[in-house]
Queue: 4 jobs
Job 1
Amino acid sequence: INKIWKVVAKNKRVNKEWEELMQRSPQNTARCYQDLCTAPMTKKPRRVFPLRGKQYEGIWEYEVTSGDRVFYIPYEEEKKVFVFYAG
């Protein structure tokens, strides 16, 4: 059974960035949210992937549009997705 992940924004700024993303690209942002809630650690070529390099360990990138990204950290034990950048 797929557990639903809780998606949380780091702060009000990130929340505002997310809302602006919804305005610019509602369908893509809704799909991103759906994926973050259900399978945030499922790689999709050139769309969803973990960042490389020691300083980025644990950080994932979701390409919402060609110019917009969401960066997040999935916490598997808690089933929580911590979004720290959207835009």
Job 2
Amino acid sequence: MIGRDRGPDNADSRVRLDKWLWAARFYKTRALACDAIETGHVRVAGERVKPSRGVRAGDRVTVRKGGLAWEVEVVALAERRGSATDAAKLYREDPASA
């Protein structure tokens, strides 16, 4: 699934943040991902963003959910939700937030 949605050849490829969060299984639905982004629980590079913001490999995303916080680096892009194994390959968690 990874690479099928966005090829590695196109270094400037992006995916909407809400779609990526859903595909990476941080949220069960895109609507929940949108709500979290709009309320400031998700930030990209430390800044508040809109759900339609494009993320690309190398971006740093902070996700706060249920009293927990994840600092992750986007490693791969996907627009479709796959298995939990595929979702784990989309990001790399910061050792400090693990």
Job 3
Amino acid sequence: GRNGAVVPLKPTEWHVLEVLVRNAGKLVSQKQLLHEVWGPQYETETNYLRLYLAQLRRKLEPDPRQPVHLLTEAGFGYRFVQ
């Protein structure tokens, strides 16, 4: 977390982060992320991703408006960069 503080994450936030970190540096498509975290029936629910990525950025990024770790590739997906 920020400044070494422990940040409490909800289970779904952890799951989203875990998929991104496991694929660190690689683009994870919206469809893949939705499939892995929520299941195949949610593959079009991109609003879920926007919501959860916003929450993760608020908790983990030094400046959530200018993320350096949790990056959006508009229309494609997300990338975690250490």
Job 4
Amino acid sequence: MLFDFGPSAKEVISGLAGYGQWIWQFIVMWWWILPPIVLFRLWRPLYLWFINEKFAAKVKYTFLEINLPQEVMRPIQAMEQVFSHLWSIYDPANFKEKWLEGKFLVNFSLEIAGINGMVHFFMRVPVALKEVVQSVIYSQYPEVEINETDDYTRHVPQKIPNRDWDSWGCDYVMLREDSYPIKTYLQFFEKTPDVKEEKRIDPLAALLEGMAFMKPGEQLWLQIVAKPITNKENDWISRGKKLRDELIHRPQTPRPKSIWRQVFEILFLWRSPDVIPETKEIPAPMMMLTDEEKGAIQAMEKKISKYGFECNIRFIYLGERKSFFKPRIKVPINFFTGISTEQLNGLRPWNVTKVYYPPAIEERTYIKKRDLFWHYIHRFTPLFPEPGKTFVLNTEELATLYHFPGKMVVPAASLKRIRAKKAEPPTNLPIE
């Protein structure tokens, strides 16, 4: 033959059939690899939740009650220093620890409980960090007494509401992006024209006074669950800088091209090299802002300059039905209103244990109360086991919400105070 037209149609079909058979055999042998890849987005959180639960079962917690002296002479700034030191418990997991051991960042809980008219300060911390926490507190408050105690939430029925007990509570979320700070203790000053010194107003005064007026059978619990973070776990610093740049209308700097990309464009796409544009004098962005906008920007920059904690906050008012007085819920609500501002940020109730619309209003309200109580006693985040509804507070904001007050803030009769700190016997005491 003078001309060869290649394989016939029959040979082509036979070859394709053999190739298709090979593909089918490959699929039959290795099909099980595909579902995990396709279902990775579903499998990943379930797997992490499973191994995190195994790790969480190994982490044991203890309760510390802080008994205050007759008068706390240290400023609130000392408590901010305590939280700065506590941030050092930050211990992120590496790849092996996260995906094989289930390790995660441990948290601690700051709690103020008004029980039958008495105010108590508690901290729930991992047992392994108990001595670290005690030493940090003693370094700033050497006069206090720290005792290990049991969980006060175990002294009431574990299923509330019930026939004899009722409750009301909520979680709290930020009014705006958490890049904006709340009103901190540095802003709680009252300037008087006839006195040169500034009179300090304690942010906790309204809350502690309200707890002191409660009667037997009433309890009010406030809980702040916090864990130290960096911009790696929560990009709060990056978000704060981005929001700041948007407020001052700072032009976004274009990302420079890599040297290899520029060489490729010059050699193969015949593009001229990038020319650095001439800089033109433009008015400073801060010159065009109002005083309110300048204050907000300065506050955001100050917030992101300090250590941050990812937090969730909630409170519960509970009591025996014969003593339950619902207007008491105004006590914590007024407290959080006092640390909120229109210009910056604040905290507002979320997930309130109340249902406003039918159907089954009473039944749904009962379920919400049980759910919030369960989250409180286990110190879980609001959407557990899913993340969400948490926010970032820095050391200054935490110190505003939780610190040790002086005698002028809360009456001595309503707060357990010690006359003298118990001391250990000297180590060189002779023993017969």
